[in-house]
Amino acid sequence: MSRDWTYIADILDAGQAIQNYLKDIDRDSFNDNALLQDAIQLRVIVIGEATNVYQWSLEIIIRVLLGKQWQECATSSSMIMIR
Predict the structure, then answer these.
(1) Fewer CB under 10 Å: which end of the chain, C or N?
(2) In this structure, are residues 70 and 63 in contact, taking their beta carbons and an 8 Å threshold?
(3) How far is 21 from 29, CA to CA, in rounded Å?
(4) How far apart are CA 49 and CA 19, in angstroms?
(5) Which one has a higher pLDDT value, 31 or 67?
(6) What distance in Å separates the CA atoms of residue 72 and residue 81, rounded to the nearest whole number?
(7) Residue 44 near residue 82 (C-beta atoms within 8 A)
(8) Structural domain boundaries in the chain
């Protein structure tokens, strides 16, 4: 696999992991779970590092990968906002 595809695979894998973490999680559950917040933060960092190679907009990538779940979590004070 070429280096470019490795970065893209990292982004997609991290996005899929975040989707899995957030499945069936409501805002209160998310806010009360520091371990979940840390896991998601780590995956966002992975996405950020991979996107630095291409200087893509991290917010756009997260919105595409998370869809509706981004809207639910982005307003949480516990989630890092990337704008």
Answers:
(1) C
(2) yes
(3) 11
(4) 19
(5) 31
(6) 12
(7) yes
(8) 3-74
Taking the model in full, what pTM does it have?
0.63
CA distance 70 to 75: 9
- In whole angstroms, give the CA distance from residue 39 to residue 21: 8
Half-sphere exposure of 5 (CA within 13 A, CB side): 2
Which structure tokens are listed for 17? 């992991």
Counting every residue, how long is the chain?
83
Residue 72: which of 42, 27, 36, 29 has the closest Cα? 27
d(CA 53, CA 51): 5
- Alpha helices by DSSP H, listed for 1-83, are 3-22, 27-31, 34-52, 58-66, 68-74
Q: How far apart are CA 77 and CA 74, in angstroms?
A: 8
